[in-house]
Each structure stands twice: as structure tokens, then as C-alpha cells.
UniProtKB/TrEMBL annotation:
Entry protein name: Allophanate hydrolase
Alphabetical keyword list: ATP-binding, Hydrolase, Nucleotide-binding
Organism lineage string: Bacteria, Pseudomonadati, Bacteroidota, Flavobacteriia, Flavobacteriales
Keyword Nucleotide-binding appears in the UniProt entry: yes
Keyword Plastid on entry: no
Superkingdom: Bacteria
Source organism (scientific name): Flavivirga eckloniae
Span of domain Carboxyltransferase: 23-285
Amino acid sequence: MVKVLKSGLYSTIQDLGRYSYQEYGVPYSGAMDAYAASLANMLLGNDKNAAVMEITMMGPTLEFNCDTGICISGANLSPKLNEKPITLNQPTSVKRGDKLSFGKLIFGFRSYIAVSGGFKTEKVMNSYSMYQGITEQSTVLKNSDLLIDASSKSFDTKHAGVKISDSHFSTKHIEVFKGPEFDKLSKAQQDLLFSQHFTIAKENNRMAYQLVEPLENSLEPIITSSVLPGTIQLTPSGKLIVLMRDCQTTGGYPRILQLKESSINILAQKFTGNSIQFSIPAFRLSSR
């Protein structure tokens, strides 16, 4: 069991998502940065879909009531075990009574705490991912108890770890594909999409990221159609909205671009005021 002494700013339990229920209007959800979440699980020897705790900008304080192992990946929020700094992307043994806390945000925006065997919270529709209206709790609450499996395995592996490339957090380049309505844009609009830098607006969360700079829009609304995490919609006012993991399953705004999966992970580590630029990946044909 893990006791939540402080919940942090916005902490949730997530796995890799809730699939096969979108026809009923159920969002995918799942870890915003699936790469970092999967890495933390891999380093602990967990299944990549094991439930982790996603923390945003400001971390929680957790007290462990059993022995286990942890690994923290993603953003650097200055994690400490019993007030001693611990290394990111490296398995660490935790003993009964130990306290995990966090400090200053150094880089990134979202961090992931994996525990041995994964968090065993409420599972709905084959997923542990928290979402309002689907799970009883939509965030991790102060004074709650989170079920985990005790582990007697030693995780003191000082030399077993990996380093995530700095570009995962620092790059401004977001690779995209053309969306279904992209070709309805004028040539000037298309060129502007890939030449301009866009700024993350203050309206950003697990559902969507809005961008500050508008794109002049004269397109007609579309018949309500399917959307996915990573779909970029263009509103009548010219606002660009990048849908994220908790997005709705349908929408009526033109879908002008679609982020690559890796680009969703990168964007999940951006926050208000950060700058991004869209690009289409170059495909190279191999020669023999």
C-alpha cells in the first residue's frame, strides 16, 4: 500500500489507455507521455502497460507501507527518497516507511512513477487510467491509499539505467501528417502552418492543447467525424487545438493535421509559453 500524504498539482494513475470503447464515446486516456511511462516500467521489469502515477509540474509526497521497487522517468521534478536525491531512469529499492517527495521542476512537465508490479487501483473497461465519469476518482487524492504488490526483490542497481535524449524535452519540432481536411486549406495557409512557430496557450491539459497564434480560417465545419489523440482541429475563429489523450472521440472542426505518436509524447512535456513548429517527416527509400 502507498499512502498519499500530498497529492501534488495534478496526479493520476494511468496505463497505456482504454481501447475498444471509442464507439461508446469513451476516450482513450492513458499516459500523456507513453514513451516515458513505458520506459519506467521496462526498467523495473514490469509489463509496459502496468499502471503508473503521472505527475504534472508539482509532485506528490508518498509513504510506502511495504517493500517494493520504483523507477521515475520523464520530467525532472527533483525526486527524493527520505530527503536524499534519487536518479531518474534507474530502478531504486524502497523499504516500508520510506517517503518519496519532489522539489523544483528542472525540465519537462510530466513525470512517471512506476512501482514493481504496477499500481492496483480501480480497473474499468480493461484499464486503470483515471478519467472523470469512468473511474470513481479522476485524480489521486490526499490521504488515499493506493494498492501495490509488496516485493522482496532488490532494486539497488546503481549501474542499471538509461538516459533519455535531451531532445525529447528540448526540441521544438513536432512531426505531423496531413489531416483529412488539410488539402482544403489554401497554399498560403499550408505554408504558414509549417513556417510559423506556435506558442502553447495557458489552456492546456490532458484533453487538449490550444495554441496562441491563429490561422485565418474560411473552411466550413465538417460533419461530425472521428478524432484521435494528436488530431489538430481548426476552429471557425482560427484557433488551433491539438487533441491529447483524454480528448473526445468525435468532432466537427476541420482536422488539418495529425501528430505522430512520438510527437504526442514530446508535446506532453511542453507547457504554457513553450514554442513549437510543425514539420512533415521525410521518407527515404532504401536502396539495395
